[in-house]
Design a protein that fits this description.
Chain lengths: ~190, ~230
C-alpha cells in the first residue's frame, strides 16, 4: 500500500508541475507600500488633506499600468485616492451606499443594467471624482462638493444571464450613461472550498 | 472582523477546556500531507481529486505516558464533482475511499460551499454531510460546518507570489449506531500562492474529538496541503 501511495504521489507531482509551468497567466495585483516608498507628491497631497485616520498605501499593477493608491476612512466612508507613479493625482473614489444614488441616476443605471442582465444586484458603488488637484484637495479637506470637477460612478454588480451569474464593474457618468464595463475574474477559491 | 473571530476562538477554547477532564485526555502527534487537484470543466462544472495520508509520530496521555514511534495510519483518495450554482457558491458530491490497515472504508459526500469576498479578506462557509460504510463497523453519518477566513499578508487580495493566513474552524456531528459525538477542528495555516492555480499551505490541524465524553483525544497534525488547478 505504501509503495503504491508513493508511486501515485510521484505521478501526481510530476504531472502537476509540468502542467502548471505551461499555464502561467498575468493578473492584476496590488501590494502594500511603505510610506517611505510613496512618491513625495502623493504623500504631500494626502498630508495637505489633513487626513486624521490611518492611511494605507498600495501599489497596483495592471496589465500594462502601475498606480499608487492611498486608502483610508473619512466620515465613516471608505476613500481611495489614486495617483500615477510620479505622484500626480488621478482620481478620488468614495464608497457610498446604492440608496444614496440620486433617484433619476439610479433609474438610468438600472435601465442600463437591465439591458445587459436579466437580473442584477448592486454590491458596491464608488463615486469617482476627477479634475483640478486643488479642487479635489478642497473636496477631501473641507468636504467641499461644490467645486468644478467631474463625477462618475463605479458600480460593482452581479449580473444574471441565461442562468449564469457573473460579476461586472461598470462605469457611468453622472447622467447614468454607461461609459465602460469589465467582467470581474475571481481568483481561485478551491483552497477555501475543499 | 478579526476581533470577532478571535473572540469566537477564545470562546471555543474555554468551552473545550472546561468541558473535558484534562488528565484523562489522550493525544497524538503526526503529519497529514494532502494534494488537492481541481479540474475546471464546461458549463460551470468542475472535478476535485484529493489524496491525504495520515502518519502518527507520537501518542500518549497528559499524565506523562507516551510512545514515540512512527506509524502509518491511513490514506484517503476522493473525487468530487461540483457545479457552480451562484456567483460565489457551489454544490459538490462524490466518493472517498479510505485504506486503513487491512480495512477499506467507503464514504459518500455532499457539500455546499459559499465564498464571500470582503474588503481585505475572503470568508468561506462549507456545509457538508457524509456517510461512511465498512465491512466491520456500523455506518457512520456526519454533518459538518466549516468556517474559513483567508487573510492576505500583503495588499487586500492574495496575489501571485504572496503569503496568506488561512484558518479552518469546523464542527462535526457524528452519528454511529446509537452514539453521538461532536468533534471540533481548528487549523491555522500559513499559505503561499505561487500563482492563482498553485498554492501551498503549511500549519497545524488540531482535532478535538468527543467533546462530550470524559476521555477525549486531542490530535495535532502537521498539515501540508498542496492545491493545484487545471
Amino acid at each position: 500500500m505504501n509503495h503504491y501511495f508513493i508511486k501515485c504521489l510521484t505521478i501526481l507531482i510530476i504531472g502537476s508541475i509540468s502542467t502548471s509551468l505551461y499555464c502561467q497567466q498575468k493578473y492584476e495585483r496590488e501590494s502594500r507600500l511603505k510610506p517611505a516608498d510613496v512618491p513625495p507628491a502623493a504623500l504631500e497631497f494626502i498630508e495637505s488633506a489633513e487626513i486624521t485616520s490611518k492611511v494605507k498605501w498600495y501599489i497596483e499593477y495592471g496589465l500594462e499600468t502601475k498606480s499608487i493608491e492611498a486608502k483610508f476612512k473619512l466620515n465613516n466612508k471608505r476613500h481611495s485616492v489614486e495617483f500615477d507613479t510620479l505622484g500626480t493625482l488621478d482620481d478620488i473614489e468614495i464608497e457610498i451606499l446604492s440608496k444614496e444614488l440620486n433617484t433619476n441616476l439610479k433609474k438610468s443605471i438600472d435601465i442600463a443594467l437591465s439591458g445587459n442582465c436579466s437580473n442584477h444586484k448592486i454590491s458596491k458603488v464608488q463615486k469617482q471624482y476627477t479634475g483640478n488637484q486643488n479642487v479635489l484637495l478642497s473636496l477631501l479637506k473641507n468636504q467641499d462638493f461644490a467645486g468644478n470637477f467631474t463625477t462618475k460612478y463605479e458600480i460593482i454588480t452581479s449580473c444574471e444571464n441565461e442562468s449564469k451569474t457573473e460579476q461586472y464593474e461598470y462605469l457611468f457618468n453622472d447622467e447614468g450613461k454607461l461609459l465602460q464595463q469589465f467582467k470581474i475574474i475571481f481568483s481561485n477559491s478551491s483552497n477555501l472550498e475543499y | 472582523m478579526n476581533i470577532r473571530l478571535l473572540s469566537l476562538f477564545k470562546f471555543i477554547f474555554s468551552l473545550l477546556l472546561t468541558g473535558s477532564s484534562y488528565s484523562q485526555s489522550t493525544y497524538q502527534f503526526g503529519i497529514l500531507p494532502s494534494i488537492n487537484l481541481n479540474k475546471k470543466l464546461q458549463k460551470d462544472w468542475s472535478l476535485n481529486f484529493k489524496t491525504q495520508s495520515r502518519q502518527r509520530i507520537q501518542n500518549g496521555d497528559f499524565r506523562g505516558n507516551h510512545t514515540k514511534e512512527y506509524e502509518y495510519l491511513l490514506t484517503d483518495f476522493s473525487i468530487l464533482s461540483a457545479k457552480k450554482v451562484g456567483l460565489n457558491s457551489r454544490i459538490s458530491g462524490g466518493y472517498l475511499i479510505r485504506f486503513r490497515n487491512e480495512e477499506i472504508i467507503h464514504r459518500t459526500i455532499q457539500q455546499y460551499s459559499i465564498v464571500k469576498r470582503k474588503t481585505g479578506f475572503r470568508l468561506a462557509h462549507r456545509i457538508a454531510a457524509d456517510q461512511s460504510f465498512s465491512s466491520n463497523q456500523s455506518p457512520e453519518f456526519r454533518f459538518r460546518y466549516r468556517l474559513t477566513p483567508e487573510i492576505p499578508l500583503d495588499g487586500q487580495t492574495v496575489d501571485p507570489k504572496e503569503f496568506y493566513i488561512k484558518t479552518n474552524l469546523e464542527f462535526l456531528n457524528k452519528f454511529q449506531s446509537s452514539d453521538y459525538e461532536l468533534e471540533f477542528r481548528l487549523a491555522p495555516l500559513f499559505g503561499y500562492s505561487f500563482n492563482d492555480r498553485n498554492k501551498l499551505e503549511f500549519g497545524l490541524d488540531y482535532r478535538f474529538d468527543s467533546i462530550f465524553v470524559t476521555d477525549p483525544r486531542h490530535s495535532f497534525w502537521t498539515s501540508i496541503n498542496w492545491y493545484l488547478n487545471f
